[in-house]
Amino acid sequence: MTKYLTWALAISLLLVHTVAYSQGLAPSNYDGFETGDYRNFLPKYAGESDAFVRPRFSVAETAPIAGGYSLRWAGDKEDEHRWLLTSNAFYLRPPLTARFDFRLDAPLVAPNSGVGLMILETYEKLTGVWARSEGVELVLDSVAGGEVADRRDLDARLTPGTVYTLAVSIDGDGVMHARLCETESGRTLAELCGATIVHPHGLALAVDEPAGVAVQVAIDNVRVEAAPYRVRAETWTRAPLPYFVTLPRQGDVPQAEGNWVGAHGLFRDDHGYHMWYRIRNNEIRGAGYGYAFSEDGLTWKKSDRNPLFIPDPQLFASNEKITVRKIDGKFRAWYTIDHREKQGWYTVHASSNDGLEWEDHRIVIEEPRSKDADVVYVDGTYYLYAISPDDTSFGVFTSDDGLEWEMRNVIPMRIHRHPSIYYDRETAKFWLYASCSHLGMHRAWSTNGIEFSDFEYVWSEPPVGIDDWREGGIDYAQFRTNPHGHLLDTHRNLIMIYQGRNTKANNHPSWLYHGSERILMAGYFSGLHVGIPTHVAPDRPYEYERFPYDATAADGLSVQASSPGRAVVTDWSPDKPTVLAMEIRGRRGDRWRLELRDALEPGTIYELAVQHEDEDRWQTIERNRAGSFGDNVFIVHLPRSGPQAIVIRRVD
User: Fold this and answer.
1) For residues 73 and 55, what is the distance between their CA atoms, to the nearest angstrom?
2) Does the structure show a pLDDT above 50 at 1?
3) 470-481 pLDDT, tens per residue?
4) What is the mean pLDDT of the chain?
5) Are residues 555 and 581 in contact, defined by beta-carbon separation less than 8 angstroms?
6) Could you give all domains of the chain from N- to C-terminal order, each with its CATH number?
């Protein structure tokens, strides 16, 4: 009977283990442009012209290299082009190999025209390779058009219609290899080697086109093999491909145009996730509002009815951020308009029965500067935070009905920032975030929603990529909340859905061509999570093997190890007899310390038992009585090396 129970427990743990390992998100590290756009990339001008230059990238179904789409560059013979189609969506921890396939659709007639692959630390410090018409050139720790570190001539010119593969590898010691080969045969045409000090933050697909030359090239199958994926605990991390971009730009405006989605508001209810966002294009700063829905917060579908509404262009010059809440079954929106007659930014309120058809639009805050409002509803009171009464302050307003507002406080910010707010029931605090500045993102807290603590640093934009704008690449932060704006996650584990801002650096004549914003996702995680393999080491934060999106947090559990090891929580059930089941990989004699807080029945005896993978029996290591706060500490010196199961269970 005992043996039967042992095997039953082992089988049940195996089933839990199998299910648990499907938790979180793992990176694909691949983009074949099958979404019909290049949403994971940003065109960045790297040429020497001081004139306004437009990128010539597109994604088309015409003669794709693979699948249904390929990226295309179609030159115009007029401008001098050197572009880096840059992405920080790929995981690039060395040792790494990045590669893509390309096909020339016209000869490279100029010796200095070509196609390249770059690994970037910054735009001024990159390493990569150019495939020119007659040779291959190596660039080391320089700019894209910098000095050539090495070159190999080709035996024959690159042939239009042939598919080639261009690859760059960087090992853990900074040794870099570049290779050009024929894709179908695998035959190497040229290979180069060098040393680099670049710390990878992004990659770029590069095109070099001198004035008077029209390069025609198709690119596909961008992929990266890198060191094992890791997400460091207690720091903000962008979601991996293919979840990096939550909401791409408008489909009805060409990719080269400066169209945006962003300045959004969202919440989750019993049906799923709802997002409303500001639409922006090259003709008007605000072109109305759109709506998107998602069942899981990962895959979004834009409404066929977009734009839902456009503020009267005769009265309003533009529209900005929108916030939507659902109170007592009614959708309520607060959005910003630029008033032509009153000369200022004003907050407008509208209502809806379904979140799609909106009515009763009216200005509700008459301050001539009341911009980009975010709203929460707590215990019968509406709290609104906006850029007000000037461009470098946050105004705090309260209301009983969401229509009549009273200013309760002014928070000096010293520079222009955008506010975001949520209420956390667990901490009984309002959390106010300030984004969009060269200082990065900061946050403050309040117990009454009116007076706030000092702001503390949260996060900054990356050196390269879709959200790399130095004046605030991480903007309009939104968090997973209920319809009232109350946090659904915990302050220890947060998902942020934000507008990534950037600039193409192409001498744009005005903000109309500033960039191509889209909505991205990032996470901040701490502790252990069910089903997420976690690396544990002395005096270092945890590192997760998967992005712990929607993984159940083992709140109250912490683990320490005397030497590096790996742990996976397969079950966490404080309300059941077996509180914890986990797998540990370590070395014989390693000391593991498991601390549980507010997770046990006070005064009850619990035991820690270990089972090695090739054993049937469980070995009880320690028995302890839970403290008055449901806490206890268990110490185990691993009896064997390799994987072993651990349980903490109640002793009846």
Assistant:
1) 9
2) no
3) 988 999 999 999
4) 92
5) no
6) 2-23+529-650 (no CATH), 32-227 (2.60.120.200), 237-308+372-524 (2.115.10.20)
